[in-house]
Amino acid sequence: MALAKRIIPCLDVDKGRVVKGVNFVDIRDAGNPVEVAKRYNEQGADEITFLDITASNEDRATTVHMVEEIASEVFIPLTVGGGIRTCEDIRRMLNAGADKVGINTAAVFNPDFVKEAASRFGSQCIVVAIDCKKVSAPGETNRWEIFTHGGRKATGINAVEWAIKMTEYGAGEILLTSMDRDGTKNGFDLDVTHAISNATAVPIIASGGVGNLQHLADGVTLGHADAVLAASIFHFGEYTIPEAKAFMAAQGIEMRL
Amino acid sequence: MKTIAVIDYGMGNLHSVSKALEHVASNQRVVVTADPEVIRNAEHVVLPGVGAIRDCMAEIRRLGIDQVVQENIASGKPFLGICVGYQALMQDSEENGGVPCLAHFDGHVRFFGDNLVDEQGEKLKVPHMGWNQVKQTSNHPIWQGIEDNSRFYFVHSYYVEASHPQEVIGETVYGKTCHVALAHQNVVAVQFHPEKSHNAGLQLLKNFAEWNGQA
């Protein structure tokens, strides 16, 4: 008897459609979010993450509506991220049916927001999303830095130290994305996943770079992730969730089958 | 039409509980409410809850929900506590420096601790978040049609240690044995989130909606 590692398909949603970019650019259409979420729910996904990658207010209203629709039909945990900047944003998403919210840029500019959010809504629903890139030169000790604005702006913040700080501020979970790997299909950055998982007490979701099922397994066995997130390998039908689970279970990983 | 009242005391996500109940009990009316009269008249009552226990208990007392809960339990109608709504039924919780609760069940809510490890000595994360197996330690109507050791979705940093083993109907191991489901007469309470636990969870809610409160 043990806690299962989770597989989380991620829906990057832009203007009401699921899209998937490579290194945060070059977008490709993958369908209607509600249909996609229902398909993953039926396949046995352990959770669903919905990332609203558009910024305009109009699109945000569409997001709330879609979250409502997904939450009425999908009875597994749903995390919504993208543009969460205030407690009012969080309340709106929770009321729409989200179970957790992902806070990213707003945490970097105002770390106290994470504290406020955790004390008001509980740590269990506060996921801090960390987008990082490796900044150390080859041969140097590994060092990763936080980037904002879709990976365009460096912040000078050390990713491991930031993760520790965020859990102290009340984050209940960390969604860790390697921007070097995102969309590349070369696998997770296992070093940063391992470093952050071992440095913090909360669950870590590895994200960015999954190209095959071995990458998912490696995220858990080598990266010490508690959950693995992927988008394109599932969206475009290369693999199904049950295939991924069976593959990981065959390597001795505890899964919900 | 019979009514299932989901008690709203301003904490957390009631949407998912009510949506899941609507999904499994299409012949019953599901209302989310803090109105004592509506709760009194309902045939089934659910006490959900997420967040910190101190705030939950403060709201429960401020809104007079403690009275309503006691009346409802005493009336013999089926009553379900979920997550913090379960913990609130215990005597007290270690969270927030110690908080007295409703004391419907004897037992305490304890912190998992900072140095939680599994049987192999591997560090375990807190909160206990994700899908874990629930061993059905007694044959209760709420488990009908659910396979023993099915996985349910959990998210909590504090766990229940019940005083009376005969009230425990479900256990989960996470560093220690946690009492994740209790039952006594017309009251059932669970630590996990049935509304987020896919087929097993929906079945449990369906069982509750159809339950007459007799164990």
Offer a quick outline of the entry:
The complex is a heterodimer of chains A (257) and B (215). Chain A is of the alpha/beta class and 257 residues long.
Structural write-up:
The complex is a heterodimer of chains A (257) and B (215). Chain A has 257 residues and is of the alpha/beta class. An eight-stranded parallel beta barrel of chain A has the order 1-4-5-6-7-10-11-12, surrounded by eight helices. Chain A contains ten helices and twelve strands. Chain A has a single domain (6-250), classed as Aldolase class I (TIM Barrel, Alpha-Beta Barrel). Chain B is built from six helices and 14 strands. The longest helix of chain B has 13 residues, at 198-210. Chain B has helices spanning 14-24, 36-41, 53-62, 65-75, 84-87, 198-210, and strands spanning 3-7, 29-33, 44-47, 79-82, 92-93, 99-100, 107-111, 128-133, 135-136, 151-156, 158-162, 168-173, 177-184, 187-190. Chain B has one domain: 3-Layer(aba) Sandwich (Rossmann fold), CATH 3.40.50.880. The chains are: A alpha/beta (257), B alpha/beta (215). The A-B interface holds A 1-6, 41, 44, 46, 71-72, 75-77, 94-99, 119, 121-125, 172-173, 201-203, 226-227, 256 and B 12-13, 15-16, 19-20, 23, 50-52, 114, 118, 124-133, 135, 149, 151, 153-157, 172-174, 193, 195-198, 201-202.
Strand content of chain A: 25-35%
| Neighbour order of strands in the largest sheet of chain A | 1-4-5-6-7-10-11-12
The backbone outline of chain B, from C-alpha atoms, is globular
CATH class of chain A: Alpha Beta
> What form of chain A results from the Cα inertia axes?
globular
Number of domains of chain A: 1
CATH superfamily of chain B: Class I glutamine amidotransferase (GATase) domain
Computed Rg of chain B: 16 Å
**What is the chain-wise order of helices and strands of chain A?**
EEEHEHEHEHHEEEHEHEHEHH
Computed structural class of chain B: alpha/beta
Whole-number radius of gyration of chain A? 17 Å
The fraction of residues assigned to DSSP E strands of chain B is: 25-35%
